[in-house]
Amino acid sequence: MASMVASAGRGTAARIAPSRGSTLDVICAGEALWDLAPSGGASLRFRPGGGAVNAAVALARSGLRVGLAAALGDDAPGRALLARVAAAGVDVAGVALIPTRQGLLVLEDTGGARHMVAHRAEDDLPLSVPEGWAAPVLLLSGISPALAPIAALCRAARAARRTGTVVVVDLNARWRLWAGRDPRVLHALLREADVVRCSAADLAGLGLDDAQVRAAMRPSATLVLTQGAGAARAAGPFGEIALAPPVVAETRAAGAGDAFTAAICAEIARAGDHGPERPDLWTRAIQRGHAAASAKVGRR
Predict the structure, then answer these.
(1) CATH architecture of 2-299
(2) Where are the domains of the chain?
(3) Which residues lie across from 137 on neighbouring strands?
(4) Which alpha helices (H) appear in 62-148, and where do they start and end?
(5) How confident is the model at residue 19 (pLDDT cuts 50, 70, 90)?
(6) Can you list the alpha helix ranges (DSSP code H) found in the chain?
(7) How far apart are CA 214 and CA 154, in angstroms?
């Protein structure tokens, strides 16, 4: 599967405006892509993709009010993607159209191993949230930590937390995009998160383990670690919860991890906090994450 990046340009910090009443339930910030997937024979089908887009569409389909903060190329592919995401019920007022050239991400499946090659513009992905937006949850999702300046993401997270917004970071690492970069630069972003979601594959790609990630996070934060067909674990001030997923034929369908993350964000938005002292909330969040990921696998 290939992913066409319809976004690039020098980044600016996302800004979450203070608000007495949330206008949205979740704000998703990150990259927006066209995924190119086989459609039988020699044809390909285009579908909206990228961690932030996948999560935003899933949240909108669940009935939540969700906004997308991203950047797209100001051209036919970018505008078509914008229209598709808007048609899914996502508020796209936070999407900037930037005159720039397209990038391309190619993902190959070879004997169960996945390899990603990136060809993209040199400038960084900009993130800009409209001043009037506010939400209980800000999700920084997808490959954006590799593409966007970490400092800009940290400023976005700090601004959100000052208004009481729960910051969720989905590492969703792609090791080829991190080639030559020290994964420890992520520590600054991890310190700003209330919730970090990652997979065992993410950590392996970054050369980190869950203890190192946990050590970089604030004591009040929660780490959610998924392991494919293995149990997902949530660890925080409430202790640790481990729940196995349903048995499915495949555990690595594209977008399954984003669906899991979206379910976590939905649970936090409905609860009004990230449940640092509530194991019941995290039990429900993991159960719903498993259900959402399994449904994604079934729809593939």
Answers:
(1) 3-Layer(aba) Sandwich (3.40)
(2) 2-299
(3) 26, 166
(4) 76-87, 144-147
(5) very low
(6) 51-61, 76-87, 144-147, 150-162, 186-192, 200-206, 210-216, 256-271, 279-299
(7) 17
Which residues lie below 8 Å from residue 151, measured CB to CB, with a gap of 6+?
A: 13, 188
The residues, ordered by sequence, that sit 6+ positions from 64 with a Cβ below 8 Å of its Cβ are 25, 26, 266, 269
Residue 148 pLDDT greater than 80, yes or no? no
Quick: pLDDT tens for 248-287: 545 456 678 899 999 999 999 999 888 888 999 999 999 9
160-174: b (≥16 Cβ within 10 Å) or e: bbeeebbbbbbbbbb
3-class DSSP state for residue 194?
A: coil
Residue 178 has pLDDT above 70, yes or no: no
Q: Using alpha carbons only, what angle is made at residue 3 by residues 246 and 151, rounded to the nearest 5 degrees?
A: 90
Q: Is 80 exposed, middle or buried (0-12, 13-18, 19+ CB in 10 A)?
A: middle
Q: What percent of the chain shows pLDDT beyond 90?
A: 41
Residue with tokens 């892509």: 33
Rounded CA gap, 85 and 275, in Å?
A: 30
pLDDT digits (tens, 9 = 90+) for 200-218: 988 887 888 999 999 999 9
Q: Tokens standing for 41?
A: 């024979």
Within 13 Å and on the Cβ side, how many CA atoms surround 248? Answer: 22
User: Using only C-alpha atoms, what is the Rg of the chain?
Assistant: 18
